[in-house]
Amino acid sequence: MSTRSTEVSSELAAAGRSMARRRGRNARRPWVSLGILALFVLTGVLGPWLAPHPPNAIDLAHATEPPVFAGGGMGHLLGTDHLGRDVLSRVLSGARVSLLVAVGAVLLAGLIGTTVALLAGYVGGRLDMVLTRAADASMAFPVLLLGIVIVALYGASIVVVIMVIVLGAWPQYARVLRSEVIRVRGQAFVRMSTVLGGGPWWSMTRHVLPNIIPTFLVLATLQVGLSIVAEGSMSFLGIGVPLPDASWGNMLADGRSYMRNAWWLSVIPGAALSLTVVAANLTGDWLRQHLDPATRRR
Amino acid sequence: MTALLEIKNLEVDYFAGADTLPAARGVTFEVRAGTATALVGESGSGKSTVAMAIMRMIRPPVGDIVGGSIEVDGLELVDLPDRRMREVLQRHIGFVPQDPTTALDPLYRVRTQIAESMPGVARGELNERIADLLASLGIGDAMSRMRSYPHQFSGGMCQRVAIAIALAGDPKVLIADEPTTALDVTTQVGILRLVDRMRRERQLATLLITHDVRVARLLCQNVVVMYGGVVVERGPVRDVLEAPRHPYTRALMESSAQGRAPRRPLRAIPGQPATLREMPAGCPFAPRCERALDICATAMPPPTGAEHSVFACWNPEDR
Amino acid sequence: MTSVLEARDLTKVYQTTHGHEVRALSGLNLTLAPGETLGVVGESGSGKTTLSRLLLGIEKPTSGEVLFRGKDRQQFGHADRREYVNAVSAVFQNPYSSLNPRRRLWDIVTERQAIEGHTGKRDRRARAAALLDLVGLRAEFAESFPHQLSGGQRQRVAIARALAQDPAVIILDEPMSALDVSVSGQISNLLLDLQQQLGVSYLFIGHDMHQIRHLSHRVVVLLKGECVEQGDAQTVMAHPQHPYTRGLIAASELETLEVSG
Hints:
The structure holds three protein chains of three kinds. Chain A is mostly helical. Chain A has helices spanning about 5-25, 30-50, 85-125, 125-140, 145-155, 160-185, 190-195, 200-235, 250-255, 265-290. Chain A has one domain (about 55-290): MetI-like (MetI-like fold). Chain B folds into two domains: about 5-90 and about 170-310, P-loop containing nucleotide triphosphate hydrolases (Rossmann fold); about 100-170, no CATH class. In chain B, a hairpin with a 2-residue loop joins strand 9 and strand 10 (about 230-235). In chain B, helix 7 (about 155-170) runs parallel beside helix 8. The interface of B and C includes residues 214, 264, 267, 269 and 272 of B.
């Protein structure tokens, strides 16, 4: 195989990369998506203190009021639900739940998945076979079913939600990152590291890990979105964060029955959810480009 | 003996972000039926760009042909509608790529891939025609071997299959992109011999892209030397390679280790090949040229010389 | 004068998944003297890559010995092994994958020092600057990333890295095969110059007979894992004994399309 044609193809690759850059203008100025994510984290952390009303306070006198931009009063900016609970307050405290789920699930699944990927990809052989089978089995497993069983036995809680999501998500990290590990490991600079006397730990931490981090970050930001949505699905099934505590997912689920005359009950948490997921993905894109020395703006 | 492939003042750009990179400028040469022309150059010289431009593989948003003309058998290709261009590619131009092992689809049998280039042939005749073609290219037991998959062939055999695919449509023009670079040394001569024989038997106008001047001398009647996107010298192989006028051609001839005294320094060309991003004004070779004059850095030398023996240099080597 | 590196009856056999055996190397004998360049010529499947892996300790031989300064590597103690790692270094073929794209050049070049852990960043940077200078790269390149360099410049970095530990032997596995003709001449000259300055030995693996003849004192020709011819480089080139060697030389001449022998 000749690498003489590499010059031409690398010129073309550079052209393709900057084409992608031009398309994703956000990639150069990620302020919008980063801003939204920052807002998300902020409300997640400060939510309960920012809320104008206690999120679980029932006030039947003010039940089912529309948001202020659809005819409602200033007392409840985003309206109230059928029990008179303030939607804005519930969205803010729901952000905290989503934040916990997203961060918890992503970090835990990421940790497990990356470790498995490193072991399977770097060590190879028997260990690789065992770990890959384990990942396959986990992917084939009906995770939601397990969630229902656990909730039936121990009741619903945010911990169960995170556990179920992690169980479903870690194989994604493991499989994708395993390929990356194998790819990087095959590069000459890793082989050189062995020649220079670096042991497996040295190669893994100094060479392999830094080169798979960009892929990890893209996966992680995608998973942030998926986790938040997964939490919503679990709420739909009744095994998510238990009422009366608000999460974007269970608000969405709850609001279903009121779509006709109180559309804001689902639409508003749905909008918050969508916005956050999109922001997470865009940030992931930017992060990946920013971390690659070859495409970073110097 | 008309010119089957005629390139006139071809200009190709690559678009990389906000920049427009000049990959080829003012490229002019022709290839006549039954003759082989070598397009010689290193990385960034523009030789692969020219080949890809001929086959319309450079299109927006990656790049585009921004000037000049490409004629195959009198037909202008540059603004030809896509559908017509595809016909031309299928019936008039055969392309042999650089790496035979990646040029073939590993999922399909060899026979199927060759048949793709023979759309008009009747089902009953197909197998025989393919077997004949493969046999003529030196693949023994062709009838059964054509049912094999690419991975069952060696590198040299794969290249013969690639040549079969290129010739299956009975083209008039053959473009071979470094056909031997990915092969072992002992296999290379066989493939080169094959290309030469095909050229003679089918009277193909052959454009051979290579970085190795010896291949040019061995196989071709004419040579076009490119550097930094421009043609620095072209003409009959004997003339250009034995008495080069352009300093780059001369340096290229002298930089090989062949025949040099053991462990004595070689006459290496200093510096790096020009990259598209840092193309200097004036002659692209000027920064590395030991004969460079002041004017070389500011103005591009125009092509001079007789009709078929042309060079572009302000300070050429003496004959 | 003991040889600095020696292979005795070196053999490597791989087991494939189908239970077949692949004899990558069979009974290879070679010696490398101090300050000498030994050229190893072979095409694909000749065993040259396996040879470099065995000599570098990336893989263990199936049978046979590797001797360093007369001592069998299998008898090595901990200190001997460390000495070996310092004494035998490598430069690989592909300049685009032999440098970690996420590290700066000074960091890449002094990786050995980083592994040993005795040298601080400032000293490593200084050493890197000296090494880059030795291979003809300006000091300011030390802070660059690999993608900012051309193929030839990257190979210089790879050579600088190989020199960082003051090696006795550098194993070069097709170091110029991926480079442009106009650049490989520079690298060739650099290698010759460094050998003169530092007295380092080279094991130069390649497939271009002319390149190898030009750079080597002695040459070994490999075919399917076996040495078919060995001797003084000029003599072997001028009077090849084995038909395969003759075929290789004829093919590299590219003087005629008629291939003889």
